[in-house]
């Protein structure tokens, strides 16, 4: 966990069998768009949230300029990657079997705030992410832009065997292009 951090990296680690979430990174200054330079790369995250089923994320990234790439995230009861802030990049991750205990959640989830713009979700492979059968209602998309999330670019992803590819719950100026969504 890095809070108020600059130029920190969590790389090439294996995190598994955890009672709560795996990685929490927070940095940069939103009011000035000062960059954090934080990186979460090449990690394997699985079997987390064993004691706490919701809000136990594979990666929680908050702030400006957090880079989340080349991670494998699987077997998570809630969301794999949760992003809030500006100019964050989520790319080249493989995500599967997440949101196993919840709905109204997404494999990659961006929380609402119309001023949090410039986030990029690209070249991820999200597969086998569907609403649990014991939950009667709700959605579990590969990417979930919640309540007024604006200015997000989503392209070049592959979403296979998912409840929905991308779900936009309000917001504006979001660009969703050139993704492959199957099954």
Overview of this structure, please?
- Helix content is 0%, strand content 46%.
- With 183 residues, the chain is mainly beta.
Termini Cα gap: 36 Å
Q: Total strand count, please? A: 21
Mean pLDDT: 94
Specify the helix fraction band.
Answer: under 10%
Order of helices and strands: EEEEEEEEEEEEEEEEEEEEE
**SS field, number of helical segments:** 0
| Radius of gyration based on Cα positions | 15 Å
Strand order of the largest sheet: 1-4-7-10-13-16-19
Poorly predicted tracts of residues: none
Strand share of the residues?
over 45%
Q: Main beta sheet: strand number and arrangement?
A: 7 strands, parallel
Alpha-beta content class:
mainly beta
The rough form would be described as globular
Please describe the topology of this protein.
Blueprint lengths: L1 E4 L3 E3 L2 E3 L6 E5 L11 E3 L2 E3 L12 E6 L2 E3 L2 E5 L4 E6 L2 E3 L2 E5 L9 E3 L9 E3 L2 E5 L11 E5 L7 E3 L2 E5 L1 E5 L6 E3 L2 E3 L1
Parallel strand pairs: 1-4, 2-5, 3-6, 4-7, 5-8, 6-9, 7-10, 8-11, 9-12, 10-13, 11-14, 12-15, 13-16, 14-17, 15-18, 16-19, 17-20, 18-21
Features:
21 strands; mainly beta; seven-stranded parallel sheet; 183 residues
Précis, in short:
The protein is mostly beta strands. It has strands at 2-5, 9-11, 14-16, 23-27, 39-41, 44-46, 59-64, 67-69, 72-76, 81-86, 89-91, 94-98, 108-110, 120-122, 125-129, 141-145, 153-155, 158-162, 164-168, 175-177, 180-182. 0% of the residues lie in helices and 46% in strands.
